[in-house]
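Lab notebook: predicted structure, single chain.

Context: the supervisor wants predicted structures on file for every construct in the current expression panel, including those that have not yet been purified. This is the next one on the list. No modifications to the sequence; it matches the entry in the shared construct table.
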Amino acid sequence: MTARLLLDTHSVLWLDAGDAALRPATRLMLEAHWRAGKALCVSAVTAWEIALLADVGRIELDLPPEAWLARFTTRPGIEAVALSTSAATRPTGC
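Prediction complete. Output recorded below exactly as produced.
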């Protein structure tokens, strides 16, 4: 298992909300990764997508997108990362 996983936009939103749309097997895999001390990464593209979804009214956040993302990425084991071309071509790692 890689040392870091790059979360997609839906995974970030569902993980934060405890949404059942995040499959139990996926949730268990993410929790195991986190418990092993490995990072769950959120890219700049995911931040942009969340801000865009909030701006057009497709999602509701309890804070402005920038503050919401800041809160999410300060959790233990969550890491905000710039999206390099290298990371963009490796969908499972960051």
